[in-house]
Amino acid sequence: MATKGKGKEKNDGRKLVAQHKKARHDYHILDTYECGLVLTGTEVKSLRQGRASLVDGFVQIDRGEAWLHNVHIPEYAQGTWTNHSARRKRKLLLHRVEIDKLEAKSQDSGHTIVPLSLYFKDGRAKVEIALAKGKKEWDKRQTLREQQDRREAERTMSAIRRRQRA
Hints:
Blueprint: E1 14-19, H1 21-26, E2 27-37, H2 41-48, E3 58-62, E4 65-69, E5 90-93, H3 96-106, E6 111-121, E7 124-134, H4 137-165
Antiparallel strand pairs: 1-6, 2-5, 2-7, 3-4, 4-5, 6-7
């Protein structure tokens, strides 16, 4: 399948709508899951316009069902009185085994479930959620330091290669 559009599509039929980049900085990602979303018509239309924010989002398991809270999908501009509420809770579609596993693991102290990305896959809205453990401040600094060291090493190696070619 050829890549089309504004560079947001991948070869696997995914069209990225929103990503929570800071989640990987703030949390240790332990396990990821792909799940469907129960949406209204105006929410889907708003998502197709590429409008959403996952920044404050989290997943809560209530009575055996997974719910996505605080994800902001703005109202559809051409919507009428049937428009949706921007920050309503939305049901996630997961298998029972996955919900039970997430519920058991999220009960541990320091563990939470956060959304990582929101996308369309073969025409259906999907959200990638992750079981995560919060990082301490020193963990964040250590991660940044490792990234910076890696970048510096790559720069040094590319400079050496350029000198060898010349």
